[in-house]
Amino acid sequence: MSRARSFVFTLVALTACNDSSNTPTTGADASTSAATDPGTAATDASTDGPATTSTTTGDDPTTTSPTSTTGDPVGPTYYRDIKAILDAKCATCHRPGDIAPFSLTNYDEAGMFAKILAPAIENRTMPPWPPGADCNQFAHDRGLTDAERELVLAWIAADAPAGDPDDAPPPPDDDAPPIAYDVQLGIPEPFTPAEGVADDYRCFLLDWPKDQETYATAFTIEPGAREIVHHVIAFIIPPDELADFEALDAADPGPGYPCYGGPGGEASPRAQWLGAWVPGASSGALPEGTGIRVKPGSKIAMQMHYHPNGAPIADQSTILVRTAETVARPALLLPIAHPGWMVDAPPMTIPAGEADVTHSFTIDLGSVIQYLYKDEAIGVGKPLLAHMAGVHMHTRGARASLVVQSGGNPEACLIDVPRWDFNWQGIYEFAAPITIEPTDSVRLECHFDNSAGDAPLKWGEGTEDEMCLGMVYVSTDSP
C-alpha cells in the first residue's frame, strides 16, 4: 500500500477511535459483533436506509456502495458508472508520464484521489473547458455534463465505492480515422526549460519544407516530454515578415528565444495561426474540406509553454502537419484586435486597483482579411463560414467573448469564456459552422481585473502586460 493511502487510512482509523472513545455505545449486539468478529460489518437497525458494507482484504480496503435487498449497489460505483467518465474526460491528461500531477487510470488511483477531485469538479475548474455553455455548442467538449458532474460528486460523497469489476466499460474507442501526416518539424536540439520558474515560454523558428504553395489540413503535436509540455501554439511566419522573428532568434544564445503573448516581435499581431495543441486534445484534423495556406519560404514559430516540475527535463517536441495541394474551402485563422492598442493610439489602459475594466473592438472580417493579406486577400465581399473561435488575454484577464453582429444587434455568439484562465486557452471548433455575411461585423470584448495591481497595464508582449485578442477560423468557397 502506498504511503499516501496508508496516511489517509491512518487518519480515518484515528478518527474512528476518537469517536468511539468519546461516544457511549448502546446496544450490546453491535459492540459484541464488532469485538468478536472484526471482519463482520455492523448494521444499524435503528435506521430506515439501506445497509452499508465494508470489507477489508489485507492492506487494501475495498469500499462498496450501499446495497439494496437484492444485493445490487444503490449508488454510483467506479466500475459501473464512473470509470467511463474519468477515462473520457480526465485520463487523457491524468495518466502516467503526462502533464497532470497524478494518474486516474484505475480504481486504486481514482479512489485515492477522489476527495481531492471534489473541489475542482464543484467549482468547474476540472476538467478544464473554458467556453461557456450558454453561448455556443462545441465539438470535442471536454467538460462534464451536469449529469456527469452530479454522478461523480455523488460517488465521491459515498466514499468512492469500487463496485464490481465485471461492470467495467470497454476501453475508450477513438473512432476517428488515422491521419496521414506528411510534414514533420521539430525542435532542432533538446531544450531544458529554466529552473525555478513556474512557467517558461519559448519559441523555436522552424523551416517550412514545402517548395510550393500547400494547404495545412491537419495539425498536432508529439510532445517530447509530456510531463512538462503544457500547451503549444504554432504560427505561420510568411517570408515578408521573417526579419523581425529571425532577429529575436539570433539575439538569444540558446535554442529558440523567449516569447509570451505570441511569437514575439512587432509583427506578432499579424502572425497567422497554424494550430494549437493541449494535453488531451482530440483529432488534429481541421474542419472537413478546409485548409490553411502556407507559402513556400515561410517558417513556423513553435511557441512552447513549459510547466517545469522541479526536475531538469529536456524536451524536443515535434509538429506534425497533413498537407494538400488544394482544398474545397480555403481557410484563414483571423486575429481580431484593435490595431491602435499596439501603438497606444488609443492605449488599452487598465488602471491599477480597478476590478472590472472593459475594452472592446468591432470590425467586419473583410477588413481584417485585407489588412493581413493585402493583395492575396480571399473571401472579401462573400459570405464566410466560421468553424472555430478563441480568445486570448494574459493573467489579469477575467472574461472575454466574440459575437457576430448584424445591423449593430447581436446575431450569433461565437465564444464566451466567462472565467478566463491563462493556463487553459485554445481555439474551439463549433458543433456546426456559423455563416457570417459580408455586412456583418464581429465584436470582441475583454474584461480585466487589476484590483491587485499597483500599476496600470496596457497592451504588450511581457508577463506584466496585457492583450485582448480574438481568433476566428473561417473558410470561403473560392480562393
Automatic annotation (TrEMBL):
Keywords, comma-separated and alphabetical: Disulfide bond, Heme, Iron, Metal-binding, Monooxygenase, Oxidoreductase
- PROSITE patterns per the UniProt record, alphabetical: CYTC (PS51007), PROKAR_LIPOPROTEIN (PS51257)
InterPro entries xrefs: Cu2_ascorb_mOase-like_C, Cu2_ascorb_mOase_N_sf, Cu2_monoox_C, Cyt_c-like_dom, Cyt_c-like_dom_sf, DBH-like, PHM/PNGase_F_dom_sf
Task: Answer whether the UniProt record assigns the keyword Membrane to this protein.
Answer: no
Every Cytochrome c domain range: 70-160
Q: What is the lineage of its organism?
A: Bacteria, Pseudomonadati, Myxococcota, Polyangia, Nannocystales
Q: Which domain of life is it from?
A: Bacteria
Give start-end positions of Low complexity composition bias. Answer: 23-75
GO terms assigned for molecular function: copper ion binding; dopamine beta-monooxygenase activity; electron transfer activity; heme binding
Q: By its UniProt entry, which PANTHER family does this protein fall under? A: DOPAMINE BETA HYDROXYLASE RELATED (PTHR10157), MOXD1 HOMOLOG 1 (PTHR10157:SF23)
Which residue intervals make up region (Disordered)?
A: 20-75
Please identify the protein, giving its name as recorded. Answer: Copper type II ascorbate-dependent monooxygenase, C-terminal domain
Organism listed in the record: Nannocystis exedens
